[in-house]
Structures are given as C-alpha cells and as structure tokens.
Design goal:
By secondary structure, the chain is an alpha+beta fold. It has a domain of about 120 residues. It is built from five helices and five strands. The strands form two sheets. The chain has a three-stranded antiparallel beta sheet, with no helix packed on it. Strand 2 and strand 3 form a beta hairpin. The longest helix is centred in the last third of the chain and has 15 residues.
Length: about 160
C-alpha cells in the first residue's frame, strides 16, 4: 500500500477500491513481495516492470521470464480480473457466517458458475496445512470447547472462550 488510501471496511468500499487496476496491483505486490520484488521462476531480484503490459520481465534470460502478479497464485490461469477476485476474497474473509456462490454472483455481477469457481479456489487457498499450527493472533468469539454433541443446547460444563489468543 502506498499509505495514501485506507483499506476498505465495507463491501461497497472494497468494490470501489479494487475497481482501480493500480490499487489491485499495488495491494498484491505489497503482500506478495513485502521486501523486494523477485522473479517467481529463478528468484532474481528487481525485475523490470513493463507499464504497457502491467507485468514484469526478469533480467535473466530463461523461459517464463515475463510474469504478472497472478503467477503462482489462485488467480493464475483465470480470465477474471483482480477487480472481481479481491472483493470476493474480502467478502469471504469478512462475513461471519460464510458466503455462498449465489451471494458472490449477486454482489459482483459474475455468473453463478464463475462465483462457484472463485469460491472454491479461495477456500482452497484459505485452508490450513494438515500439521500447521496457529502462528499469529487469532480471534475467537463465543466458542465452546468440550462436552457431548447431544448436550449442545446446554452451556453447563463447557469452557467459554472469548477474546484473542
């Protein structure tokens, strides 16, 4: 981020913010390469940015020396622009009760089939590694741990956790 514009807080703000291709590009570059830009194929530092193509070209000669911010991500091989992907990710990450493909379809103006495809790719990217552990701040709201499934309507005998871990 360039620090000039705050990140979106609502879906409407997310759609407006990510409708600008420069905002999308800067947002993803800041998250993917926080220290310095590297070629995803060979790892060379500071490739050349081609403004006309809105992509990079590695200074080292090799196949696949031209790349975009989509390479190696869930956005790769997708004809959809980042102006659709990033608000969809925002929706999924910020909705407490989850999002259906129909909601994405209605909110972003894509077909339901496309919304289903996006939803599955995003969910796949958000999955934890099988043996992964929580490594950052985690917020848990009104979670009950322990007890039998048949007694879920009773709150006695369970530990209630609120706050952050």
């Amino acid at each position: 981020m360039d620090g000039k514009t705050a990140l979106p807080k609502t879906l409407t703000e997310a759609v407006k913010y990510f409708s600008d291709p420069d905002n999308c590009l800067n947002y993803l570059v800041a998250r993917r390469w926080p220290n310095s830009m590297t070629c995803p194929t060979c790892g060379a530092q500071n490739p050349y940015f081609d403004k006309g193509r809105r992509g990079w070209e590695c200074k080292v000669r090799h196949p696949r020396r031209k790349f975009s911010v989509k390479v190696g991500t869930i956005f790769e091989d997708s004809p959809l622009g980042l102006d659709k992907w990033l608000p969809a990710i925002w929706m999924i990450a910020n909705c407490k009760n989850g999002v259906s493909s129909w909601e994405i379809h209605r909110a972003l103006g894509v077909t339901q089939k496309t919304a289903w495809f996006m939803l599955h790719r995003i969910r796949l990217a958000m999955q934890d590694e099988p043996e992964g552990k929580l490594s950052c701040e985690v917020e848990v709201d009104e979670t009950f741990i322990g007890g039998k499934a048949r007694n879920m309507h009773i709150n006695k005998g369970r530990k209630r956790i609120t706050g952050t871990a």
